[in-house]
């Protein structure tokens, strides 16, 4: 067993040396201009001696280095990267779009657990789920089944007990939250 283990470590050590040597022999690849897709002749010869798996690993490493240098060059030039310029939609917007799609009975609507979870977590917050979307959310909750329904009722009851123990509050946001909890409890209980 120990002999076999030693043999495996020797093989991996040889592979690591070979990859390291190949990476050192191809220093020009990351610095090559984006249009030039070929590595130097010396690097190509080394790539030919590598196994397919080793070649993939080396190519990924070189590609990563090229991307890093490209980003660095763009940053130095003061140009924003394409990723940062694209406006990513927030989880809130995605969940509200999901809810609106359900309410409008769109053909391309599909159940998405993450969107439902987001809605269930934030349904009492007026900032996250505006008043204009709350009636649609209540209609969505009517169809809630199984464990999700049970957990929603349990959480609403726990929040209601917590708010009752806190005493009467003059905070209008707290009153709005209480009203939403009562509506959910009436609907699901």
Automatic annotation (TrEMBL):
Record Pfam families: WKF
Domain WKF: from-to ranges: 97-158
Listed InterPro entries: WKF
Annotated region (Disordered), positions in chain: 1-79
Biased composition (Low complexity): 24-46
Ranges of compositional bias, category Basic and acidic residues: 52-76
Record-given protein name: Protein cholesin isoform X2
């Amino acid at each position: 067993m120990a002999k076999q283990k030693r043999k495996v470590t020797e093989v991996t050590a040889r592979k690591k040396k070979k990859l390291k040597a190949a990476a050192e022999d191809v220093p020009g690849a990351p610095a090559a201009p984006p249009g030039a897709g070929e590595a130097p002749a010396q690097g190509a010869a080394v790539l030919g001696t590598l196994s397919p798996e080793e070649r993939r690993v080396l190519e990924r490493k070189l590609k990563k280095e090229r991307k890093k240098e490209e980003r660095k060059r763009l940053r130095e030039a003061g140009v924003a990267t394409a990723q940062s310029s694209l406006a990513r939609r927030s989880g809130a917007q995605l969940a509200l779009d999901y809810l609106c799609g359900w309410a409008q009975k769109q053909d391309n609507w599909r159940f998405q657990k993450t969107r439902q979870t987001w809605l269930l977590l934030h349904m009492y917050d007026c900032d996250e789920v505006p008043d204009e979307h709350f009636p649609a959310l209540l209609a969505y909750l009517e169809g809630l089944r199984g464990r999700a329904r049970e957990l929603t009722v349990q959480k609403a009851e726990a929040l209601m007990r917590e708010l009752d123990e806190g005493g009467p509050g003059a905070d209008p946001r707290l009153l709005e939250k209480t009203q939403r909890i009562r509506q959910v409890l009436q609907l699901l209980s």
